[in-house]
Amino acid sequence: MTETTKICGQCGKEKPASEYYIHHTGEYEGMLFRCCKECERAQKRAYYRRLHPDGMRYDMTRGRVMRKKDGVVTIGWSGSMLAELRRMFPVTKNEEIAGVLGVSVRTMIRKARELGLKKDDRWLSGVWDDNRKMAQMMSRALGYPGGYKPGRPDTGTEWRKGYVMPEESRRKQAASMRRYAMAHKSDYRKRGLKAWETRRRRAEENGTQA
User: Fold this and answer.
1) pLDDT tens digits, residue range 156-191?
2) What predicted TM-score, i.e. pTM, was given to this entire model?
3) What is the CA radius of gyration of the chain?
4) Is 78:89 a contact under the CB 8 Å cutoff?
5) Strands 14-16 and 72-75, how do they pair?
6) CB atoms < 10 A from the CB of 43, how many?
7) d(Cα 93, Cα 192) in Å, to the nearest integer?
8) How do residues 92-145 score in pLDDT, each as one tens digit?
9) Which CATH architecture has domain 5-51?
10) CB burial class (10 A; 0-12, 13-18, 19+) of residue 182?
11) Contact 15/28 with Cβ under 8 angstroms?
């Protein structure tokens, strides 16, 4: 054995000094660890598994329980969190549930899909109705009877009545409509034949000419 190699106290293999960690503090400062890096990492993984057999631990930096499995760290869902999610999801907004559970809305929705949870239809209809009423109230408060003011766009976001489209813009619009019609010619023909067949059938039933 040379000065640049060392026999590992765990696996018994002779490895170069670069394969060992170095003590930076204490009485062994500047000396190599007894075991090589590979064995040291294996010992730490075994120690972690003994402390956290299910992979769950409290992460001080994130301030919540996390799960570590196969080197991947994910959010740890406890039994109480899952029970709260099942109770709240059908009749509670997603943002409120995520705030209570301390997770992002996306993470909460992904877990709800895994559990097969769905919103209550009656509650969802009520939320939509409340949103519609709120939109109507805001529209009236702002003085807009509808979603758009009458007229056509002028400069920027301004609108005014009686706007006349320039001839060049009119030609471009007509050409665009013709291209669309040619691209969907077969669809229009099918619809026309279907409409004609419907009129013919009704005429036969009424005893008249189509």
Assistant:
1) 544 555 666 778 888 888 888 777 777 766 666 667
2) 0.41
3) 36
4) no
5) unpaired
6) 12
7) 47
8) 999 999 888 888 888 899 899 999 999 999 999 988 888 888 888 877 777 665
9) 2-Layer Sandwich (3.30)
10) exposed
11) no
